[in-house]
Specification:
By secondary structure, the protein is mostly helical. It has helices spanning 9-25, 30-37, 41-53, 69-91, 96-106, 112-127, 129-137; strands spanning 57-59, 65-67. The chain has 2 domains: 9-73, Winged helix-like DNA-binding domain superfamily/Winged helix DNA-binding domain (Arc Repressor Mutant, subunit A); 79-137, Iron dependent repressor, metal binding and dimerisation domain (Diphtheria Toxin Repressor, domain 2). It is 62% helix and 4% strand. A two-stranded antiparallel sheet has the order 1-2. Helix 1 crosses helix 2, helix 4 (69-91) crosses helix 5 (96-106) and helix 4 crosses helix 6.
Length: 156
């Protein structure tokens, strides 16, 4: 069986959540996915149908769904990427709410090579706490302001 194309960012979010639900409850249903992602059931149904067509899930209408081997592999990759970023941001001392916001903002845009470098750097700092302490001691205490907004033009 050929490998399905890699899913979109949105599809990755669905695969990640489906895997989490299966891990938590033993199953995943459209209603559970909709509630956890705070989207409409119709949106979930549409995405689930696409994921099924792409070969990432097995889906039967009005029943639960399961991940295919390809879907499971992608979900595991996403989970690993998420965990790596979480560990990295944690050792930097970022608050959990900032970690979560930043992880969601960048996790779909990093190459596997970049994620591996971050994992290696995290492991290095975990194994060399004095180096981490030295690094953290160099952190700037200056808050960088957000970029200015573009000037508004008023029409006359």
């Amino acid at each position: 069986m050929p490998t399905p194309p890699f899913p979109s960012q949105s599809a990755e979010d669905y695969l990640e959540r489906i895997q989490e639900l299966i891990d938590e409850k033993g199953y995943a249903r459209v209603v559970d996915i909709a509630n956890s992602l705070q989207v409409k059931q119709a949106s979930v149904t549409s995405m689930v149908q696409k994921l099924s067509e792409l070969g990432f899930i097995h889906y039967e209408k009005y029943r639960g769904l399961t991940l295919t081997t390809a879907g499971h592999d992608v979900a595991q990759l996403i989970k690993k990427r998420h965990h790596t970023l979480s560990r990295f941001f944690s050792i930097l001392g970022l608050p959990p709410e900032i970690q979560q916001q930043d992880i969601e903002g960048i996790e779909h845009h990093l190459s596997p090579e970049t994620v591996q470098c971050l994992a290696d750097l995290t492991k290095y700092f975990e194994n060399h706490p004095l180096r981490l302490k030295q690094f953290l001691g160099t952190k700037s205490t200056v808050t960088i302001p957000p970029p200015p907004l573009a000037p508004r033009t008023e029409s006359l």
